[in-house]
Amino acid sequence: MKKKGSVKLRLRDTKHPLLFEVNTRVLLRELSQKAGKTITLGTIPNKVIDSWQELGFDTIWLMGVWTTGDIGLGIAKAHSGLQEEFRRVLPDLQEDDIIGSPYAVKAYSVSKELGGNKSLSVLRRKLRERGISLILDFVCNHTARDHSWIFSHPEYYIQGTVDDHQRKDMFFAAETKQGEKIIAYGKDPYFPGWTDTAQLNYRMAATRQAATNLIKKIASMCDGIRCDMAMLLLNEVIEKTWRGIGVSGATDKLEDEFWTACVTEIKKEYPEFLFIAEAYWDLEWKLQQLGFDFTYDKKLCDRLLKEGAGSVYEHLTAEPLFQKKSLRFLENHDEVRAAHALSSDAWNAAATVITATTPGMFMVHDGQMEGRKVKLPVQLGRRPSEPPSENMSAFFKGLLSNLNSAVFRKGEWRLLSVRPGWNENHSWRNVIPFWWHEPSDGSRLVIVNYAPHGSQCYIDLPLENISGHTIEFRDLIGGSLYNREKSGLAAKGMYFDIPEYGFHIFEVKEVGAPSNS
C-alpha cells in the first residue's frame, strides 16, 4: 500500500461512492480504553484506518468532532426524558458518559478532547495517503446557545419579544452586547424547539454570509460536509416554520435560496468539495437542483423497513438523476438499528443488498457491520457492550468486496422488469432485480426476493453486450453457477425460484470468457 506522496481520492473516481459514518467520540473512547492512554484523532492506530481502506470505503464521515458547550451538556444531564433513555441504553450509566449533543455546536473548531484542529489535520493526511476523503458535519439551522455569535451578533438569530419569552418551549433570554435579547430555540415546523440550540435567521443577508464563511472555513479542513437538516433553510420551510410566531428584528427581502448562492461560492474556491444534505419531506429533489451532490434517501429506508417489495420497486422507478444523487442507508445515528428493526439476519441482508446496489452513495453506519441492535443517543460517549454477529460481519465483508469492482464503481444501473412464474402466482411482485454494466468489467445481475416466503418469476435480461450462444451466471455471493442458452433467455427471460429473503449477485458473461471479479 502506498503511504507517501500524492494519492488520488477514490471519491473522485466513482459514480457509486461508499461512505462510513464513525461515531467519533465513542471510537476514541474505546480506542483509549484499549490502549490504556488517550487516543486523539491524530493518534488513531494505522490498523484502524487501514481497515477502512481494506473494506473499500471512499470517504469517512466523522460525526461529532466540533466543540460543544456547557449549556448543552447541562441540559442533557438534567433532562428527565433523556435520562430515562440514557439509563435504558446504559443501565450502568456514569455521569461522564453524558457528553451533550454534537449538534449543539459552540464553535467550528475540533474539540480539545479529540485533539483539536491539528489532530484532525494529521488524520486527514493519513486518510488522503490511502485515497480516502473526509466528511464533517455542518449544523446549518442553529448553533449552541453559548456560541460566540449570541453575544457578538444577536442579529444573526431569530428574536422574539418580551411576551414571547413566556413561551418556554420556543424562546430563551440571552445577554448580548446589545443587552438582553429574546432568542428562539432551533426548531423545525412540526415539533417544539431544541432547547440546547439557538435559531439562526436566514432571512438576514448577514446571517447567510456568516454561514457561508463558516463553510469556507470547514472546507479548508475536509473534503465535504454533511449538512444537518438542510431542508430547514429553504425559503418555503422558513416561512412555514416561523409564520405567525412573534419575530422581532430586521429581515431582508431575500427571494433567492441560500443553498444556491452558498454552494456556488464555495465551489469557486473548492470545486470538488462535496455537499451532502440530510433531507426529508420530499424536498430532496429540490436540494439536488440547488447544488447538493447527494441527498438522504430516507424514503427508501422507510419502505425497506416498513413496506413491501412493491413500494420499494416503485421508489426505484424515479428520475435517474435523482437516483444517482441519492444517499442510501438502512441506519444512521438518528435511525433505529437495522438489526433491531428487521427480525432476522436474512431480512437484514436482503434489505442491505438492495440499499447497497442501487445507484448513488451507499452509507454504512458505525456498528452496522457487526449487527449492533442498540440505538445510541448522540448525547452519550459510551455504548453498551454487544456481541458481534459473525454472520453479518462475514456478509458485509463479501458485499463490500463486490461493490469495489469496476462495474459497481463506474458502471450504469437499470431496474429490470419482472413477470409471473406462472398464472395465478403473484409472488413475482416480491422480486427486485437490477442490472449493472461497465465495458471493462462486464455485467452483474442483482436479484432480491424481498419477502418472508419463496418467490418465482421470469426476468427479462439486457444481454446485448454479451456475445456467444451460452451465457454463464456465476453467483459471487453464494457460489452457484448456471449456464443458459442466450436464445432461450431472449425469447422468454430467465426463470428464478428464490427462497425467503434470498438474493444473488451474478457475474454474467459468455461461457468460457475470463472472469472479471
Task: Give an overview of the whole structure.
With 517 residues, the protein is an alpha/beta fold. It has a domain of 100 residues: Golgi alpha-mannosidase II (Immunoglobulin-like, Sandwich). The protein has 18 helices and 24 strands. The protein has an eight-stranded parallel β-barrel, surrounded by four helices. Strand 8 and strand 9 form a beta hairpin. Helix 7 runs parallel beside helix 9 and helix 15 runs parallel beside helix 16. The two termini are 21 Å apart. The N terminus is likely disordered.
> Which fold name is given in CATH as the topology of the domain at 411-510?
Immunoglobulin-like
SS element count, helices? 18
Radius of gyration: 25 Å
How many β-strands, per DSSP?
A: 24
Low-pLDDT sequence parts:
1-5
Q: What is the CATH superfamily classification of the domain at 411-510?
A: Golgi alpha-mannosidase II
Mean pLDDT: 94
How would you describe the shape?
globular
Strand content: 15-25%
CATH architecture level-2 label of the domain at 411-510: Sandwich
User: Which class do the helix and strand fractions yield?
Assistant: alpha/beta
